[in-house]
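The instructor's notes for this session suggest beginning with a concrete chain rather than abstract definitions. Hand out the sequence below and ask the class to guess, before any prediction is shown, which regions might be ordered.
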Amino acid sequence: MKIEIWSDVMCPFCYIGKRHLEKAIETVPHREEIEIEWKSYQLNPEYQNTTNESLYAYLARAKGMTIEQAKQLTGNVVEMASKAGLELDFENSVPANSFDAHRLLHFAKAKGLQTEAEEALFHAHFIEGRDIANKETLSAIGHSLGLVKTEIDRVLAADDFAEAVQYDGYEAKQIGIRGVPYFVFDRKYALSGAQPIETFKAAIIQSFTEWKEARA
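After discussion, reveal the predicted structure:
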C-alpha cells in the first residue's frame, strides 16, 4: 500500500510529521507492505535569499511580525519537534529556495534513495544549518547517500527533474492541497499536518485493511 506525502524541505512540520508517521508505521504488523512516496511542494517558490537573511528575519517579514514574535513562534515548534526526537536549530537555519533540493529528491527517487535523501535534506537544513539552495551543498548531501557525484552535478547544472517537481505541484492543486505536510493513504484517505502518532496509526490500519481486502 502506498502512502504519498507532499512535503517541502523548508517546512519543520513536514519533518515532525515524517517522524510521527515513521513511529506509527513501526507499530503496525504489516509495515513491510507499506511504500512511501515523497511528492514535491514549495511553500514559497518565488523566494531567493539574496541578502543572507536569517530565518527570524524571513518569518518576521513574511508573516508581518516582529523578530521577537518570530523567535517565540519557532520556540513553540522546537518544543513540538523535541517531543518527536528532533532537535531543530532555527538560530542557524538558512532560509532557501527548495526547488533544486526537490530536483535532487527526484533524482534520488530514481536511484531508490528518496526517503534517505528526504531525511538528509531535513537534517541538513534544520539541524546542521546548511544552505539547501547551494548546489555544492546539495551535491555533497547526495554523495553522502551513495549517489555518484558527477551524476548529481550534471543533474543540478541542467534542469533535470524540473518537470517532475512542477508536476507534483500541479497534482497538489488538482487534489486541493493548500499546505504541507499532506499525507494520502492509498489514494482514498488524507491527513494534513503533523498529526499525532495514533492518528497516523489509525489511518494506516484502516487504509491497509481496505487495500488488502480489495486484493483478496
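Then share the key points. The chain is about 55% helix and 10% strand. The chain has a mean pLDDT of 97.
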